[in-house]
Amino acid sequence: MAKSGSLSINSENIFPIIKKWLYSDHDIFYRELVSNGCDAITKLKKLALMGEYETSDDETYKVQVTVNPKEKTIQIEDNGLGMTEDEVDEYINQIAFSGAQDFLNKYKDKANEDQIIGHFGLGFYSAFMVADKVTIDTLSYKQDAKPVHWESEGGTEFDMKEGTKEGHGTVITLYLNEDSAEFANEYRAREILDKYCAFMPVEIYLNDETAEPQYDTIEKDELTDKDTIIETIVEPAKTEEKEKEDGTKETVEVSPAKEKYKIARRPVPVNDTNPLWNKHPNECTDEEYKEFYRKVFMDYKEPLFWIHLNMDYPFNLKGILYFPKINMEYESIEGKIKLYNNQVFIADNIKEVIPEFLMLLKGVIDCPDLPLNVSRSALQNDGFVKKISDYITKKVADKLSGMCKTDRENYEKYWDDINPFIKFGCLKDTKFCDKMNDYILFKNLDDKYLTLPELLVKEEEKKDENKDEAEVLDADGNPIKKESTDAADENTEEKDERKVIYYVTDKLQQGQYIKMFKEQNMDAVILDHNIDTSFISQLEQRNEHYKFMRIDADVTESLKDETSAEDLKAETDTLTDVFKKALNNDKLTVKVEKLKNADIASVITLSEEGRRMQDMMKMYAMNGMGGMDPNMFAADQTLTLNANNELVKYIFEHKDSEHVPMFCEQLYDLAMLSNQPLSVDAMAKFVQRSNQIMMLLAK
Questions:
Q1: Does residue 259 sit in the same domain as residue 294?
Q2: Considering only 184-198, 457-471, 477-491, which range has the smallest mean pLDDT?
Q3: In this structure, are 319 and 194 located in the same domain?
């Protein structure tokens, strides 16, 4: 049987061989070799079910990983089907010929492909990334098979001869190189096995040959046939002395003598062979979902809710997606979606399979149908993968929209946490946006949640309420529009007829505007997340019937008394000159209006377009992208003065007073404070000026 030779390499497989060196992480060899062992056991189980192999009742299938840090060796042993001499020749000596594929071809009518992990032929050779020498000791399950010993020191040369192994299965021994000695450390090995093999379908055990033996003490009734008894421990009966009625004392037995056993610590598998995602959703409890979440992601904050994926057609896909608490800036949110192929960990956050916006979530996805390349480290970007991605997106959208329709109370409860995720998803995926359009919630000034359709209906109702009852109708019953009293209106472009949805970005800073709105029974929505600017822009682009406007973008007609520009021409001309001169700003736009709330002296408005451009420039600057000066949009600012306010009246009537310039500056800064934060210099001047005004009052 002794044989020597050179490894046979088929020219058609040269490229996959080269690609095997593209494994990004050298620890991947653990996954490859352990999954090969799981494959061998899975195949043998199938043969047993098909009647081609007779197994004993007490046979326990497992993969045993044994490390020896002193010798710098790793052994990976399985009790699967093993290999004959010919099979070693075929599957090991001819690189890149997959044993799994050959098995499936032979039993294609009987075997379930989904349960065979090793679809690839190079897994075994990943061992040479960390080992100077690798040996194989194997014995086939086939009757009269002879054991085989194979070894190679990493080149194209190998030695193969009759071995000494007893019992079917395979033992692979790695003699690690100096740079890879860490992989023989028990804690490092456990870490890697937990990363790649935590849910493989066969029990995996880890043992350190150099570690001191560990023991446990158990009760007699806990003993099993598999336990190794080290020592029998007899605990004597417990007694205590008690006084009798006649005053004498006697010793009484409190508890009988006990027999316990000191046993070798029972081995515990490092993996869970039946992960939660393989179960039907109806079989899983809420506590099981939460426990699985804590175990896999080491996150002890409870997830908000989850989606259990369970699909058999047109492709096989299972998984669980968790919605964590993500009430933070969306750029800093970091989720983790673990991708598995038949319970074998492949990678985290594979963008070809998982839509980008779902990377904010945490979860697991297991899809045996994924087309992996030979390294198992990348995905082919093809139409099939796109279908999987679309399916996941649809399931998430269905879950969220269904919750909005049938469990609105909880949906609202979760909204503040999940809305950055949903909005980010809408920005990144148009199909997701289409599905979620009517289920996005907006919180109004009264902290009530409204969907977009509900919000638009509400605005329409308000418009009807404010409609002039004495409205003149034409012959068709349509209202006749009043001619504008402002001559300038005649020359303006066609009026924007889109419905306006007002919004607030900072309830405290924009408190003055909010007060004005509430006094007139007007409403606005809260959009205080940095993703909202991009989000509402997208909504506007996709729907021409409405637009968003910040509450301080304009002074609406509802906030004003009815008057004409001609009535306020004198005040406008005078106050414009006074304020421009006092503020030393010729570019400032000044308007004079009669606001219904006489307590408000002045307000600053910035056009919606100017503000969005300003915000964009700020964002670019924060990201180190440079760009235009945000202050260049200051020309879009308008200072509106209230002709009904006593201080404004005083400035108009006493324009030449020595204190008027100071009052003008103060009114301007007060208006700015309700619009945006003052600069450092402006704030210092504002404080100093406030002190001066108080001194005037004190005199």
A1: no
A2: 477-491
A3: no
